[in-house]
Each structure stands twice: as C-alpha cells, then as structure tokens.
Amino acid sequence: MLTQLPEVNIDSLKTTFASLSIEKLLPSILALIAGLIIAKLLCRLFDRILNRSKVEKSLHGFLRSLFRILLYVIVGLIVAGTLGLNVSSLVAILSVVSLAISLAVQGTLSNIAGGIQILTAHPFHVGDYVEIAGTDGTVTEIGMIYTRLITVDNKDIFLPNSDVAASKIINYTAEGKRRVDLSFSASYDCTTQDVRAALLKAAQVEGALTEPAAESYVKEYGESSISYILRVWCLAENYWDVYFKVTENVRAEFENAGLSMTYPHLNVHLDNK
Asked: Does the reported pTM lie above 0.85?
C-alpha cells in the first residue's frame, strides 16, 4: 500500500518567493555557504572512512555519490527553511520526483541493487575465473550495472548484475587450486596396471602439482573398451595449459607402452557348422 504524499501548496510557494528581500536572502546565503563547507568536510571524512574500511573498492564511488546527494538534499532543505518555505511541500515534491525516477529506471535500480549485493557478499573478485548462468570467463570488471567477463576465446561479455545476483555462481579461482579430470579408454587387451602407469606418466607435465599427487582409476567397463579417469591437480591459472598438455601427452605415452585406444566397434563371430 502506497503512503499518501503531503499536498503541495503551489500558491504558498509563489507567495514566499515574491516576498523575498536582501534581508531574507542574506541568512539563507550564509546558511548555504556554511552548509556546503560542512558537506565538503563530511565528504572528506567519509572518504577516509571508506579507504580504511574493507568495503569493495568498486563500491566506493557509488557510496560517495549517494552520501554527497544526501548531504546536498539536507543543505537544500535547511536553506529552504531559512527562506520561510514550507519544507513539507518540498519533501512532497522530492518524493514525487523520486517516485517518477524510480519507476522510469526500475531495471537500472535492480541492477544497482544486484551490484551492491555482489560487492558486499564477495562471491568473486576481479581476476577470478567464474561460471555464471552457463557463461564462463575471467572477471575483468565489477560495475554497479554490469559485471564484465572475458572468455577463453576473447569474447567480451557484460552480464546485468540483477541476473548475476540471482544466478548460480561457480568460482574456479577462489580455492587457488583446480583439479583436471580427464577420461580415456583402452582396449580390454591392455592390463589395468600398464594403462594406469601410462596415464600417471602422462600427467607429469609442467604446471601439474605433485601434491596432491595425480590419480588414475578404472571408471567403467564399456561394451568394447575400459574407461579410465585421470585426475591431476594444478594452480587455477594453469588449468587449461595442464589440461591440453596432459591430453596430448597421453597418446604419446600409450604408443610408447604399446597400449591401444579403442573406438566403438562390434565383434562378429561366425560359427561354421
């Protein structure tokens, strides 16, 4: 339910402005100057508090602007009071204007609210590799309206903050390390020990971590091959390098060990009678 706004008395405002004189303006001018000086000092103090706080840097500009606007509105109301204006009428006007603006930019305000939620909850930071609503990439900017991602194929993507705040977020960088999970298949003719040994040897590439150590296991028995899983740990920033190096290395190690990779096929046995 909307609260009824105070009635704006336009005739009263006209009468007040018509009766203005130098004697009435001087106190208002002094109040305006003093108010602006105090507002400037308070803004500087607010900046110092922000810089010492743990609030996300990207949020500082928005908070400064909001604080400055609030101070200017208060100064304006004080000056209006010294002029003899009906402050309640001015508040009513400001309320109507604010309501009109908020309805006109409802989507933008929703994005700003989402930006504030992101910057205060810290689900990710600039430089993190994340997946948001099926889109993955490196965060390059967290703005008040959009969050900017750069994908691995160098696409520049801007996601509305309202969508980001409401989406499932996967942060691949936050823990510092990532695990590369790869699946390979080998013939039933190859012994499990030989295949696992070849996979673990293939995992010894630049960028792979020795602790936790690489692991290899039988994943499942298929119709024409046995599937194996290889798990290799690395630093988050080295994920794709390790992924491709290990993938390429596996084929070479299989060839060196005389192991054969398989593909779907059907064995037909003819029974001669």
From this structure: no
